[in-house]
Write a structure and sequence with these properties.
78% helix, 0% strand, mainly alpha, 10 helices
C-alpha cells in the first residue's frame, strides 16, 4: 500500500512554491526592471534546472515527486487552450511566441518526469544524480548557448540537419558549460580523473550536438534526456562493467 509521508507532502508544497517563485522572479525582472524577455526566459531556465535536484532532496518517494511536474503540465495545457482563444485578440506573431513558450515549458516538465521515473524510480535513488545532471546541464548550458549565441554568434551551421537559428559559438559555449556541470559530479562518484574526463567530454559533446539539431524548442526535452542518458550509459560501460 502506498502511503504518503509528511516529507512527501512538504515536498509537493515546496516544489510548487519553487515554480511560483521562478515565475514571480522572472516577471518582476521583466516588468519592473525592463530586462528583455530573452534574458528573463534564460534566468527561469537556470532556476528550473534545479527543480530535479530539489525534488530528489525533498521527497522520500519518487512517485510523489512527479506530482508537482504533472500538476504544472495540467496548468500549462489549460493555459495553452486559453492562448488559442486569446489569439483572436492578439497579433499572429505574439500568439505563436506565447504558445511556443508554453510548449517548451511542457517539454521540460515531461523531461523531468521521465528523468525522475527512470533514474530514481526504475534504477534506484543511488542513480538519481544522473537525473540531476540532465536538468542542471540544460538549465545552465541552454541558457549560455542561447544568450552567447544570440549576442556573439556569427557562424551559422550550413547543413540542414542543424537548426538554422543555432550558431557554432552557441554550441561551443553549451559544450563548455555542460562539461563544467558534469565533471565535478562524476568526479565525486568515479574518483578516477581520466575516466571522469572522458565521460564528461563525451557527454558535453552529445549535449551540444543534440541542442544544435533540435528544432522548435524541442531541445528543452532532448537536451536533459540526452545528457542524463549519455552520462549514465558511459558510466555503465567504462566504470561498472570494468569493476
Amino acid at each position: 500500500m502506498i502511503e504518503i509521508t509528511i516529507r512527501d507532502l512538504l515536498g509537493i508544497v515546496g516544489v510548487v512554491f519553487f515554480f511560483l517563485f521562478v515565475v514571480l522572479v522572472t516577471e518582476i525582472a521583466r516588468k519592473h526592471f525592463n530586462i528583455p524577455r530573452l534574458f528573463t526566459r534564460k534566468i527561469s531556465n537556470v532556476l528550473l534546472g534545479f527543480s530535479v535536484p530539489l525534488s530528489v532532496n525533498l521527497f522520500s518517494n519518487w512517485y510523489f515527486a512527479l506530482i508537482p511536474f504533472l500538476l504544472v503540465n495540467l496548468i500549462l495545457f489549460v493555459l495553452m487552450s486559453f492562448s488559442d482563444l486569446d489569439s483572436l485578440k492578439r497579433t499572429e506573431q505574439t500568439s505563436i511566441e506565447k504558445k511556443g513558450l508554453i510548449v517548451q515549458a511542457i517539454y521540460f516538465q515531461v523531461a523531468c518526469v521521465v528523468l525522475l521515473s527512470y533514474f530514481w524510480g526504475f534504477l534506484g535513488v543511488d542513480y538519481s544524480y544522473f537525473a540531476c545532471l540532465g536538468s542542471l546541464s540544460w538549465g545552465f548550458g541552454d541558457t549560455t548557448a542561447g544568450v552567447l549565441g544570440t549576442i556573439y554568434g556569427k557562424k551559422k551551421y550550413p547543413y540542414r540537419i542543424f537548426d538554422h537559428r543555432k550558431t557554432v559559438e552557441g554550441s561551443i559555449s553549451m559544450f563548455i558549460i555542460v562539461f563544467l556541470v558534469v565533471l565535478p559530479v562524476l568526479e565525486s562518484v568515479i574518483q578516477t580523473l581520466s575516466i571522469t574526463l572522458l565521460i564528461s567530454l563525451s557527454t558535453a559533446f552529445a549535449g551540444a550536438l543534440i541542442e544544435a539539431v533540435s528544432r522548435r524548442g524541442l531541445d528543452t526535452l532532448t537536451v536533459p534526456l540526452s545528457i542524463s542518458c549519455a552520462s549514465y550509459w558511459l558510466f555503465i560501460l567504462l566504470v561498472q562493467n570494468r569493476s
